[in-house]
Amino acid sequence: MKIVMAAAEVVPFAKTGGLADVIESLSLALEKEKQEVIILMPGYKYVGSAGLNLKRLKEDIDYTSIGNNIKVYFIKNDLYFNREGLYGDALGDYPDNLERFSYYCKRSLELLKEINFKPDIIHCHDWQAGLIPAYLKNNYADDRFYKNTHTIFTVHNIGYQGLFPRGEFIKLGLDVSLFNPQALEFYGEVSLLKGGLVFADLINTVSPTYAREIQTKEYGFGLDGLLNSRSSSVFGILNGLNYDIWNPQTDKYIAANFSDSDVSGKFKDKEDLQVSTGLPLKSNVPLFGIVSRFAQQKGFDILAQSIDEICKMDIQLVILGSGDFQCQETVSLMAAKYPKMISLNSGFNDSLAHKIYAGADIFLMPSRYEPCGLGQLIALRYAAIPLVFKTGGLVDTVNSTNGFIFEDYSKEGLVKAVKKAVSSYKNKSAWNKRMQIAINCDFSWNASASEYLKLYVKAKTK
Known about the structure:
The protein is of the alpha/beta class. The chain has helices spanning about 20-30, 80, 95-115, 130-135, 190-200, 210-215, 225-230, 265-275, 300-310, 325-335, 350-360, 375-380, 390-395, 410-425, 430-440, 445-460; strands at about 1-5, 35-40, 55-60, 60-65, 70-75, 90, 90-95, 120-125, 150-155, 165, 185, 190, 200-205, 235, 285-295, 315-325, 340-345, 360-365, 385-390, 405.
């Protein structure tokens, strides 16, 4: 099968979040399944200066490869992509993002014709690629090149919709009649996400539970009606984890490697984490870890409300993250109030992230909603027991045997779950058993890639 991955970011070329990891890992997993995969992404400024082995295809197209032979094409345009940020800068989102990503979508479809790659499936990811299905069903409806091409649109987080003023619609190059509530209009604005939701052959998101949640008013962000009308075409496939990167047995960043057959190295990693983050050396105190984007979605609101109660317990907490200024201020106040119990580390630090997963006893992830979540998958791999809210992909991966789940999203619900985890930690034989269950969980990409192949076959029957 010929498959195109269309996404705005891909590891190792450009990354702001988990989307970039998913595109790389899924593409590599599909290649292992003997599929022919190529990737199309914008040619951002730093792609050309990152020391990559880039080759020139056309004046505005460079390419390289990953895996055995997955070609990655970079669509260049200095006006749109020769910038420091992917989607914005310190002042906020770029005001011309609609033009930038509509150009990317148009140029992607023309490029496929130029390289004569007739795809069976174009797999589009998030709002930045949402116009590809819209263009195919409208502007390319009679183009024989795409006669047998079908589309999958994956929603990684429905909270990010690509919304723009209605006056921008004319810049898309679509018929003006498509600016209506059944197509790309969303309460008077243009929604690029709706381009994918309305016109893709099939829709999927990154966990089965999240696929159900986005069809409800609580989690649908105003699109639950549309998704309900297409419910027979909405699917959920859990993201996998790249175990070549996240492997405690070979991890180069951690003080001591360990495996499912011998987790003793983890205790040295806990000591190393305490030293690295300036916390007192306490081997018998449960060490909680957080690696997260600072956003209210991630549960920092109820964590701030709970912190006084939590810090009455004998615990330690290491936090690593960046993001929303107000949320970061909230976290900073917590750390300042309890400097001997909480270590706050702001920014992106890949080495420290690995150390936290390896050294933490409990991985705290109280997200209000979480489409899939990679943090809990990594934590399980490193025998750091996840403590999560009952939502999205967290429900699909964490249970009472490998972690702790709370169902009441509140200060009281979180405190109760933390107390239970701390109490369980004190029972060493039961805790060791829980660690063994966690580290032996298998959330590799193999099963997910197989499910995507089934979905691709289903799309071809549409």
